[in-house]
Amino acid sequence: MGLADRGPQGPNVAILGATGAVGRQMMQCLQERHFPLGELRLLASARSAGQQMCWNGRMITIQEATPESFEGIDLVLGAAENDVAERLLPHAVKAGAVVVDNSSAYRLDPEVPLVVPEVNPEDVAWNTGIIANPNCSTIIALVCLAPLDRAAGLNRVVCSTYQAASGAGMPGIEQLETENAAIVEGRKVPAPRVFPYQLAYNLIPQIGGFDAAGYTSEEMKMQNEGRKILHNDGLAVNCTCVRVPVARSHSESITVELDSPLTPDEARVVLAAAPGVRVVDDPSCREYPMPLDTSEQDLVYVGRIREDISAPEGTNGLTFWCCGDQIRKGAATNAVQIAELLL
Ligand SMILES: NC(=O)c1ccc[n+]([C@@H]2O[C@H](COP(=O)([O-])OP(=O)(O)OC[C@H]3O[C@@H](n4cnc5c(N)ncnc54)[C@H](OP(=O)(O)O)[C@@H]3O)[C@@H](O)[C@H]2O)c1
Protein backbone atom coordinates (compact mmCIF):
# COMPACT_ATOMS: atom_id res chain seq x y z
CA MET A 1 0.00 0.00 0.00
CA GLY A 2 1.20 3.50 -0.80
CA LEU A 3 0.12 7.09 -0.25
CA ALA A 4 0.02 8.36 -3.82
CA ASP A 5 -3.18 10.20 -4.81
CA ARG A 6 -4.46 10.55 -1.24
CA GLY A 7 -6.01 14.02 -1.36
CA PRO A 8 -4.99 17.23 -3.16
CA GLN A 9 -2.79 18.56 -0.31
CA GLY A 10 -1.35 15.16 0.53
CA PRO A 11 -2.47 12.40 2.90
CA ASN A 12 -4.34 13.00 6.14
CA VAL A 13 -1.93 12.04 8.91
CA ALA A 14 -2.51 10.92 12.52
CA ILE A 15 0.18 10.60 15.17
CA LEU A 16 -0.67 8.00 17.80
CA GLY A 17 1.20 9.11 20.95
CA ALA A 18 1.66 12.71 19.84
CA THR A 19 2.45 13.97 23.36
CA GLY A 20 5.43 11.63 23.91
CA ALA A 21 9.11 12.11 23.11
CA VAL A 22 8.83 10.41 19.71
CA GLY A 23 5.41 11.86 18.84
CA ARG A 24 6.56 15.44 19.50
CA GLN A 25 9.65 14.82 17.39
CA MET A 26 7.49 13.42 14.58
CA MET A 27 5.51 16.67 14.55
CA GLN A 28 8.75 18.62 14.23
CA CYS A 29 10.12 16.30 11.49
CA LEU A 30 6.93 16.56 9.41
CA GLN A 31 7.23 20.33 9.55
CA GLU A 32 10.99 20.50 8.92
CA ARG A 33 10.82 18.13 5.95
CA HIS A 34 7.75 19.89 4.49
CA PHE A 35 5.89 16.59 4.40
CA PRO A 36 2.79 17.27 2.29
CA LEU A 37 -0.33 16.62 4.33
CA GLY A 38 -3.98 17.60 4.56
CA GLU A 39 -5.14 17.12 8.16
CA LEU A 40 -2.79 16.39 11.08
CA ARG A 41 -4.67 14.54 13.85
CA LEU A 42 -2.98 14.27 17.25
CA LEU A 43 -3.94 11.22 19.31
CA ALA A 44 -2.89 10.33 22.85
CA SER A 45 -4.39 8.88 26.04
CA ALA A 46 -7.48 10.22 27.79
CA ARG A 47 -5.07 12.09 30.13
CA SER A 48 -4.07 14.45 27.31
CA ALA A 49 -7.40 14.72 25.46
CA GLY A 50 -8.57 18.32 25.08
CA GLN A 51 -5.10 19.86 25.49
CA GLN A 52 -3.69 21.75 22.53
CA MET A 53 -0.35 21.50 20.74
CA CYS A 54 1.06 23.96 18.21
CA TRP A 55 2.08 22.66 14.79
CA ASN A 56 3.17 24.75 11.82
CA GLY A 57 1.57 27.88 13.27
CA ARG A 58 -1.78 26.28 14.13
CA MET A 59 -3.18 24.96 17.38
CA ILE A 60 -4.43 21.36 17.23
CA THR A 61 -6.58 19.79 19.95
CA ILE A 62 -5.38 16.39 21.13
CA GLN A 63 -7.97 13.63 20.87
CA GLU A 64 -8.21 10.46 22.93
CA ALA A 65 -7.15 7.53 20.72
CA THR A 66 -9.98 5.05 20.17
CA PRO A 67 -10.66 2.43 17.47
CA GLU A 68 -12.75 5.08 15.65
CA SER A 69 -9.97 7.70 15.61
CA PHE A 70 -8.64 6.72 12.18
CA GLU A 71 -11.71 7.54 10.07
CA GLY A 72 -10.53 9.59 7.04
CA ILE A 73 -6.86 9.10 7.92
CA ASP A 74 -4.39 7.92 5.22
CA LEU A 75 -1.17 7.61 7.24
CA VAL A 76 -0.68 6.79 10.93
CA LEU A 77 2.68 7.40 12.59
CA GLY A 78 2.69 5.15 15.67
CA ALA A 79 4.57 6.49 18.72
CA ALA A 80 2.99 4.57 21.58
CA GLU A 81 3.92 1.45 23.56
CA ASN A 82 3.27 -2.09 22.29
CA ASP A 83 -0.05 -2.64 24.06
CA VAL A 84 -1.53 0.55 22.62
CA ALA A 85 -0.16 -0.25 19.15
CA GLU A 86 -1.60 -3.78 19.23
CA ARG A 87 -4.99 -2.57 20.45
CA LEU A 88 -5.44 0.34 18.04
CA LEU A 89 -3.34 -0.02 14.88
CA PRO A 90 -5.33 -2.90 13.34
CA HIS A 91 -8.32 -0.49 13.37
CA ALA A 92 -6.24 2.06 11.47
CA VAL A 93 -5.40 -0.52 8.79
CA LYS A 94 -9.06 -1.57 8.62
CA ALA A 95 -9.99 2.10 8.06
CA GLY A 96 -7.65 2.15 5.01
CA ALA A 97 -4.59 3.85 6.51
CA VAL A 98 -0.95 2.85 6.08
CA VAL A 99 0.82 2.65 9.45
CA VAL A 100 4.48 3.29 10.25
CA ASP A 101 4.88 2.02 13.81
CA ASN A 102 7.66 2.73 16.31
CA SER A 103 6.73 0.13 18.91
CA SER A 104 8.29 -3.33 18.77
CA ALA A 105 4.89 -5.05 18.48
CA TYR A 106 5.09 -5.82 14.75
CA ARG A 107 8.82 -5.68 13.99
CA LEU A 108 9.40 -9.42 13.63
CA ASP A 109 6.03 -10.21 12.04
CA PRO A 110 6.86 -11.87 8.67
CA GLU A 111 3.99 -9.90 7.08
CA VAL A 112 5.49 -6.57 8.17
CA PRO A 113 8.50 -4.91 6.51
CA LEU A 114 11.12 -3.54 8.93
CA VAL A 115 12.79 -0.62 7.22
CA VAL A 116 15.77 1.71 7.49
CA PRO A 117 15.47 3.85 4.35
CA GLU A 118 19.26 4.05 3.87
CA VAL A 119 19.50 0.23 4.03
CA ASN A 120 16.43 -1.57 2.68
CA PRO A 121 13.98 0.99 1.18
CA GLU A 122 12.76 -1.64 -1.31
CA ASP A 123 11.06 -3.58 1.51
CA VAL A 124 8.44 -0.84 1.85
CA ALA A 125 6.87 -2.14 -1.38
CA TRP A 126 5.54 -5.40 0.11
CA ASN A 127 3.70 -3.84 3.06
CA THR A 128 0.09 -4.84 3.62
CA GLY A 129 -0.79 -1.88 5.83
CA ILE A 130 1.87 -1.82 8.57
CA ILE A 131 5.56 -0.98 8.24
CA ALA A 132 7.69 -1.21 11.36
CA ASN A 133 10.40 1.20 12.42
CA PRO A 134 13.31 -0.74 13.93
CA ASN A 135 14.72 -0.38 17.44
CA CYS A 136 16.63 2.87 17.89
CA SER A 137 20.08 1.35 18.61
CA THR A 138 19.59 -1.05 15.71
CA ILE A 139 18.87 1.79 13.28
CA ILE A 140 21.94 3.74 14.40
CA ALA A 141 24.18 0.66 14.09
CA LEU A 142 22.77 -0.43 10.73
CA VAL A 143 23.23 2.94 9.07
CA CYS A 144 26.98 2.22 9.58
CA LEU A 145 26.95 -1.57 9.25
CA ALA A 146 25.05 -1.80 5.95
CA PRO A 147 27.71 0.06 3.90
CA LEU A 148 30.44 -2.14 5.43
CA ASP A 149 28.31 -5.19 4.61
CA ARG A 150 27.96 -4.07 0.98
CA ALA A 151 31.71 -3.38 0.73
CA ALA A 152 33.14 -6.45 2.43
CA GLY A 153 30.37 -8.79 3.68
CA LEU A 154 29.40 -8.67 7.34
CA ASN A 155 29.33 -11.93 9.26
CA ARG A 156 29.74 -11.04 12.95
CA VAL A 157 28.97 -8.01 15.13
CA VAL A 158 29.96 -7.44 18.76
CA CYS A 159 28.31 -4.31 20.10
CA SER A 160 28.03 -2.39 23.37
CA THR A 161 25.46 0.40 23.49
CA TYR A 162 25.44 3.49 25.73
CA GLN A 163 21.77 4.48 25.65
CA ALA A 164 20.43 7.88 26.64
CA ALA A 165 17.71 8.40 29.26
CA SER A 166 15.30 9.77 26.65
CA GLY A 167 15.27 6.32 25.06
CA ALA A 168 12.67 5.61 27.76
CA GLY A 169 10.57 8.56 26.57
CA MET A 170 9.39 11.58 28.56
CA PRO A 171 9.35 9.61 31.86
CA GLY A 172 13.02 8.64 31.35
CA ILE A 173 14.03 12.26 30.79
CA GLU A 174 12.06 13.30 33.89
CA GLN A 175 13.76 10.68 36.10
CA LEU A 176 17.26 11.79 35.06
CA GLU A 177 16.43 15.51 35.43
CA THR A 178 14.80 14.98 38.85
CA GLU A 179 17.81 13.02 40.10
CA ASN A 180 20.31 15.56 38.74
CA ALA A 181 18.39 18.42 40.41
CA ALA A 182 18.24 16.58 43.76
CA ILE A 183 22.00 15.93 43.69
CA VAL A 184 22.84 19.55 42.75
CA GLU A 185 20.54 20.89 45.49
CA GLY A 186 21.83 18.44 48.11
CA ARG A 187 18.45 16.72 48.53
CA LYS A 188 17.83 12.98 48.86
CA VAL A 189 17.53 11.38 45.41
CA PRO A 190 13.93 10.17 45.00
CA ALA A 191 13.20 6.47 44.43
CA PRO A 192 13.55 5.59 40.69
CA ARG A 193 10.27 5.54 38.74
CA VAL A 194 11.36 4.38 35.27
CA PHE A 195 14.79 2.76 35.41
CA PRO A 196 15.45 -0.03 37.93
CA TYR A 197 18.04 2.13 39.76
CA GLN A 198 19.16 5.75 40.09
CA LEU A 199 20.59 6.75 36.71
CA ALA A 200 22.34 10.02 37.63
CA TYR A 201 26.04 9.33 38.39
CA ASN A 202 25.43 5.70 37.44
CA LEU A 203 25.28 3.17 34.56
CA ILE A 204 22.64 0.44 34.38
CA PRO A 205 23.55 -2.70 32.37
CA GLN A 206 19.93 -3.72 31.87
CA ILE A 207 17.38 -2.50 29.30
CA GLY A 208 14.35 -4.81 29.17
CA GLY A 209 13.95 -8.23 30.75
CA PHE A 210 16.48 -11.08 30.75
CA ASP A 211 16.12 -14.33 28.76
CA ALA A 212 17.33 -17.76 29.83
CA ALA A 213 20.75 -17.16 28.25
CA GLY A 214 21.20 -13.92 30.20
CA TYR A 215 20.57 -11.46 27.34
CA THR A 216 18.03 -8.66 27.65
CA SER A 217 15.16 -8.09 25.23
CA GLU A 218 16.86 -4.87 24.04
CA GLU A 219 20.08 -6.80 23.29
CA MET A 220 18.29 -9.43 21.22
CA LYS A 221 16.65 -6.73 19.07
CA MET A 222 20.05 -5.91 17.55
CA GLN A 223 20.42 -9.53 16.40
CA ASN A 224 16.85 -10.29 15.35
CA GLU A 225 16.01 -6.97 13.72
CA GLY A 226 19.50 -6.66 12.18
CA ARG A 227 19.10 -10.04 10.48
CA LYS A 228 15.67 -9.10 9.10
CA ILE A 229 16.76 -5.69 7.76
CA LEU A 230 19.97 -7.02 6.17
CA HIS A 231 18.24 -10.18 4.89
CA ASN A 232 20.95 -12.23 6.56
CA ASP A 233 19.55 -14.93 8.86
CA GLY A 234 23.04 -16.15 9.69
CA LEU A 235 24.41 -12.84 10.97
CA ALA A 236 26.09 -13.44 14.35
CA VAL A 237 25.44 -10.64 16.87
CA ASN A 238 26.48 -10.27 20.49
CA CYS A 239 25.14 -7.10 22.11
CA THR A 240 25.32 -5.54 25.60
CA CYS A 241 22.96 -2.62 26.21
CA VAL A 242 23.69 -0.10 28.95
CA ARG A 243 21.60 2.89 30.08
CA VAL A 244 23.79 5.94 30.68
CA PRO A 245 23.06 9.32 32.31
CA VAL A 246 23.06 11.17 28.98
CA ALA A 247 19.93 13.10 27.99
CA ARG A 248 19.85 12.36 24.29
CA SER A 249 21.72 10.39 21.55
CA HIS A 250 22.74 6.77 21.83
CA SER A 251 26.41 5.77 21.42
CA GLU A 252 27.72 2.37 20.36
CA SER A 253 31.07 0.60 20.37
CA ILE A 254 31.01 -1.93 17.52
CA THR A 255 33.45 -4.61 16.40
CA VAL A 256 32.78 -6.44 13.14
CA GLU A 257 34.17 -9.45 11.31
CA LEU A 258 34.05 -9.14 7.53
CA ASP A 259 34.28 -11.67 4.69
CA SER A 260 36.93 -9.64 2.85
CA PRO A 261 39.72 -7.46 4.20
CA LEU A 262 38.88 -3.76 4.64
CA THR A 263 41.50 -1.41 6.05
CA PRO A 264 40.45 1.42 8.39
CA ASP A 265 41.24 3.91 5.59
CA GLU A 266 39.06 1.96 3.15
CA ALA A 267 36.27 1.78 5.76
CA ARG A 268 36.47 5.57 6.21
CA VAL A 269 36.02 6.02 2.45
CA VAL A 270 33.08 3.59 2.36
CA LEU A 271 31.39 5.23 5.35
CA ALA A 272 32.02 8.79 4.16
CA ALA A 273 30.14 7.95 0.94
CA ALA A 274 27.24 6.24 2.75
CA PRO A 275 23.86 7.98 3.06
CA GLY A 276 23.01 9.20 6.56
CA VAL A 277 26.60 8.90 7.86
CA ARG A 278 29.19 11.52 8.79
CA VAL A 279 32.74 10.37 9.48
CA VAL A 280 34.27 12.30 12.40
CA ASP A 281 37.56 10.53 12.92
CA ASP A 282 40.73 12.44 13.67
CA PRO A 283 42.05 11.25 17.02
CA SER A 284 45.15 13.48 16.69
CA CYS A 285 42.79 16.49 16.97
CA ARG A 286 40.56 14.71 19.51
CA GLU A 287 37.78 14.49 16.93
CA TYR A 288 35.35 11.65 17.40
CA PRO A 289 31.56 11.34 17.73
CA MET A 290 29.95 12.32 21.04
CA PRO A 291 26.27 12.42 22.01
CA LEU A 292 26.31 16.16 22.70
CA ASP A 293 27.39 16.75 19.10
CA THR A 294 24.96 14.32 17.49
CA SER A 295 21.78 15.46 19.26
CA GLU A 296 19.05 17.39 17.44
CA GLN A 297 20.19 16.28 13.97
CA ASP A 298 19.71 13.23 11.74
CA LEU A 299 23.14 11.92 10.76
CA VAL A 300 24.88 9.01 12.47
CA TYR A 301 28.44 10.07 13.29
CA VAL A 302 31.15 7.40 13.12
CA GLY A 303 34.77 7.55 14.26
CA ARG A 304 37.57 5.77 16.17
CA ILE A 305 37.75 3.44 13.14
CA ARG A 306 40.62 1.00 13.64
CA GLU A 307 41.74 -2.55 13.07
CA ASP A 308 40.58 -5.08 15.67
CA ILE A 309 44.01 -6.10 16.93
CA SER A 310 42.49 -9.08 18.77
CA ALA A 311 40.83 -10.57 15.66
CA PRO A 312 42.00 -14.09 14.75
CA GLU A 313 43.94 -14.33 11.46
CA GLY A 314 41.66 -14.09 8.42
CA THR A 315 38.59 -12.72 10.23
CA ASN A 316 39.08 -9.13 8.99
CA GLY A 317 38.14 -7.39 12.24
CA LEU A 318 37.35 -3.68 12.42
CA THR A 319 36.31 -1.64 15.44
CA PHE A 320 34.52 1.72 15.51
CA TRP A 321 32.37 4.04 17.61
CA CYS A 322 29.16 5.72 16.47
CA CYS A 323 26.56 8.09 17.92
CA GLY A 324 23.13 9.18 16.71
CA ASP A 325 20.06 10.99 17.98
CA GLN A 326 17.77 8.09 18.82
CA ILE A 327 14.60 10.20 19.02
CA ARG A 328 15.27 11.58 15.54
CA LYS A 329 17.11 9.04 13.33
CA GLY A 330 16.38 6.22 15.78
CA ALA A 331 12.63 6.88 15.68
CA ALA A 332 10.81 9.95 14.31
CA THR A 333 12.98 10.87 11.32
CA ASN A 334 13.26 7.24 10.23
CA ALA A 335 9.46 6.93 10.36
CA VAL A 336 8.90 10.10 8.34
CA GLN A 337 11.54 8.95 5.80
CA ILE A 338 9.57 5.70 5.42
CA ALA A 339 6.39 7.72 4.88
CA GLU A 340 8.20 9.75 2.21
CA LEU A 341 9.01 6.49 0.40
CA LEU A 342 5.26 5.78 0.32
CA LEU A 343 4.34 9.10 -1.29
N1 LIG B 1 12.20 7.43 23.07
C1 LIG B 1 12.94 6.85 22.12
O1 LIG B 1 14.12 7.20 21.95
C2 LIG B 1 12.36 5.79 21.23
C3 LIG B 1 13.13 5.36 20.16
C4 LIG B 1 12.61 4.36 19.31
C5 LIG B 1 11.37 3.84 19.54
N2 LIG B 1 10.64 4.28 20.62
C6 LIG B 1 9.31 3.68 20.80
O2 LIG B 1 8.36 4.69 20.46
C7 LIG B 1 7.18 4.53 21.24
C8 LIG B 1 6.93 5.85 21.99
O3 LIG B 1 8.01 6.10 22.86
P1 LIG B 1 8.24 7.48 23.62
O4 LIG B 1 9.64 7.44 24.06
O5 LIG B 1 7.77 8.63 22.80
O6 LIG B 1 7.27 7.30 24.89
P2 LIG B 1 6.57 8.41 25.79
O7 LIG B 1 7.35 9.67 25.79
O8 LIG B 1 6.31 7.75 27.10
O9 LIG B 1 5.17 8.68 25.05
C9 LIG B 1 4.14 7.71 25.01
C10 LIG B 1 2.98 8.23 24.21
O10 LIG B 1 1.96 7.23 24.19
C11 LIG B 1 0.73 7.82 24.59
N3 LIG B 1 -0.16 6.86 25.23
C12 LIG B 1 0.00 6.24 26.43
N4 LIG B 1 -1.08 5.47 26.71
C13 LIG B 1 -1.93 5.62 25.67
C14 LIG B 1 -3.22 5.11 25.37
N5 LIG B 1 -3.84 4.26 26.19
N6 LIG B 1 -3.81 5.49 24.20
C15 LIG B 1 -3.19 6.36 23.36
N7 LIG B 1 -1.97 6.87 23.59
C16 LIG B 1 -1.35 6.51 24.73
C17 LIG B 1 1.14 8.90 25.55
O11 LIG B 1 0.07 9.81 25.73
P3 LIG B 1 -0.17 10.61 27.12
O12 LIG B 1 0.83 11.74 27.12
O13 LIG B 1 -1.57 11.08 27.00
O14 LIG B 1 0.07 9.64 28.22
C18 LIG B 1 2.33 9.48 24.81
O15 LIG B 1 1.89 10.33 23.78
C19 LIG B 1 7.44 3.34 22.16
O16 LIG B 1 6.93 2.17 21.57
C20 LIG B 1 8.96 3.27 22.21
O17 LIG B 1 9.43 1.98 22.50
C21 LIG B 1 11.11 5.23 21.46
Describe the SSE topology.
Blueprint: E1 13-16, H1 21-32, E2 40-44, E3 52-55, E4 58-61, E5 63-64, E6 75-78, H2 82-94, E7 98-101, E8 130-132, H3 136-152, E9 154-163, H4 169-184, H5 217-230, E10 236-243, E11 250-258, H6 264-272, E12 277-279, H7 291-294, E13 300-307, E14 317-324, H8 328-342
Parallel strand pairs: 1-2, 1-6, 2-5, 6-7, 7-8, 9-10, 12-13
Antiparallel strand pairs: 3-4, 9-11, 11-14, 13-14
Active site: 136, 250
Function: Catalyzes the NADPH-dependent formation of L-aspartate-semialdehyde (L-ASA) by the reductive dephosphorylation of L-aspartyl-4-phosphate.
Binding site for phosphate: 107
Describe, in short, the structure shown:
This protein is 29% helix and 22% strand.
Structure in words:
Helix 3 (136-152) packs across helix 8 (328-342). Helix 2 links the parallel strand 6 and strand 7. This protein has a 6-stranded parallel beta sheet with strand order 5-2-1-6-7-8, sandwiched between helices. Strands 10-9-11-14-13-12 form a 6-stranded mixed beta sheet. The protein has 2 domains: 13-105, 3-Layer(aba) Sandwich (Rossmann fold); 138-326, Dihydrodipicolinate Reductase, domain 2, CATH 3.30.360.10. It has helices spanning 21-32, 82-94, 136-152, 169-184, 217-230, 264-272, 291-294, 328-342; strands at 13-16, 40-44, 52-55, 58-61, 63-64, 75-78, 98-101, 130-132, 154-163, 236-243, 250-258, 277-279, 300-307, 317-324. Helix content is 29%, strand content 22%.
